[in-house]
Amino acid sequence: MKKFMNKAESMVAESLEGFVSAHDRLVVFGSDRKFVRRRHLTPGKVAIISGGGAGHEPMHIGFVGLGMLDAACTGHIFTSPTPDQIVAAIEETDTGAGCLLIVKNYDGDLMNFEMAAEVVAGRHGIETVIVSDDIAVPGPPRSSGRRGVAGTLVVEKILGAAAEARMDLAGLKALGDRLNTRIRTMGVALGGVTVPDTARSTFVLNPDEMEVGVGIHGEPGLSRQKLADADTIASMMCNTILADIELQNADRALVVVNGFGGTPTPELYLIYNIVRRLFEAKGISVARSLVGTYVTSLDMAGLSVTLSLLDEEGLHFWDSPVSTAALQWSSPEI
User: Fold this and answer.
1) Are 102 and 132 within 8 A, CB to CB?
2) Facing residues of 309 across strands?
3) Is 186 within 8 Å of 203 (Cβ atoms)?
C-alpha cells in the first residue's frame, strides 16, 4: 500500500490540521480541536451540525461555512465521532436558536449523536434529521437499514440555506424530514477501498467484475456482476432509483453524480450525460446538476447517482449563496 502519510494512527489529525490551515478564511478548530466550525458564527441562527468518520472528504468538513454547516465532527477513518465531540460542537455553536443535527443512518452515528443530544437536553434546543437515501439497502429509515450517502450533501445544503434565512428549528426539522423522502441514491464500484490502518483492500474484484449497491465505508454491495458498458450501468442505476420513488408533476430534479475518490472526472461527466438523458426520457425535468467528487470512500473507484425531487422551496434554498471549501456560489443558477 502506498499512501502519502506518516503514521496511519495520526493521519486524520494531520489531515484536519492541513484542512483548517488551507481554509482558515472560512473555518477554525473548535474547542480542544474536537470539531471544525465556521470562523464567524451568526447570532440568533439555528446551528447546523453534522459529522461522521474520516475518509469521506470533502464531506463533512468541506461543507462547513456560509449556507451549509456551522460545525462538523470527524471521527477516525470510517468511525463515528464520539459524543463528547458532538456535545462540544453544540455548546460552542448554539447562539440561542438551538441546533439541528444532520445524521447519516449508520448505527454508530445514530448512537453517538443521540447520546450527545441527551447530554445537552434542557440546555439546548435540539432536533435531528436522519438521512437514509441509499436504496441499495432495504428497511425502515431509522433501523440499520437504508444508509445515508451522497444525498446527505443535498440535505446539508438546503437546510443550511434555510437556517441562513432564519427558519426556526421546528421548520428545519420538518423540511429535512420531507427532503429525506424525496432523495434516492445508488452506487456502483469497480474496486474496493484501501484502509490505512489495515493496508488491505476491503474487497477485491476481478478485472471483469463490478460491485453493485455499495455504500461509502468500503463495504461490499448488493451483488457482484459482470462489468458492463456505461450505458448499461447508468440504465441499471436509473431504473432502480425510479422504481423506488414516486414522481409528482410539480417536482423538478436535482441530479448529483458523485465520485467515490478514485474515479476520474471525465467518467463522472460521461455517466451524468447518460443519466440526464434517461431521466428526461421518463418525463423528469432536470433543473439542477452537480457533478464531482464530494462524498468519498477514500480511494474507491466508483460513483453514485442521486435523484432529488425538489419543489420551489427546495430549489430556492439549493440556489442560495454558499461559501465552503467544497461548494461555492453566490447567485442562483439560471
Assistant:
1) no
2) 253
3) no
| Cβ contact 67:160 at 8 Å | yes
CA distance 155 to 166: 16
Mean pLDDT of the chain: 93
Per DSSP, the residues of 235-274 read HHHHHHHHTTS---TT-EEEEEEEE-BSS-HHHHHHHHHH
Which residue type is seen at 302?
G
Q: What is the pLDDT of residue 295?
A: 98
Q: Which three cell numbers mark 17?
A: 490540521
Query: Distance between CA atoms of 211 and 233, rounded to whole angstroms?
Result: 11
Query: CB–CB of 65/325 below 8 Å?
Result: yes
Angle, helix 151-164 to helix 169-180, in steps of 10 degrees: 160
Give the pLDDT mean for 290-295.
Answer: 98
* Residue among 151, 138, 130 at smallest CA distance from 59: 151
Per-residue pLDDT, 143: 44
List residues with catalytic annotation.
56, 217
Contact 29, 8 (CB under 8 A): no
Report how far apart the first and last C-alpha atoms of the chain are (Å, whole number).
45
Greatest Cα pair distance, the chain, in angstroms, is: 56
Q: Is 334 helix (H, G, I), strand (E, B) or coil?
A: coil
Q: Closest Cα partner for 67 from 161, 203, 4? A: 161
Grid coordinates of 272: 451524468
What would the pLDDT profile of 147-198 be if each residue is shown by its tens digit?
A: 999 999 999 999 999 999 999 999 999 999 999 999 999 999 999 888 887 7
* Distance from C-alpha of 218 to C-alpha of 275, rounded to nearest angstrom: 24
Report the helix count and the strand count for the chain, using DSSP H and E: 8, 17
Query: Range with the lowest mean pLDDT among 4-13, 51-60, 131-140, 293-302?
Result: 131-140
pTM of the model: 0.95
Strands 65-66 and 36-38: unpaired
3-class DSSP assignment, residue 39:
coil
10 Å Cβ neighbour count for 334? 4
d(CA 48, CA 156): 8
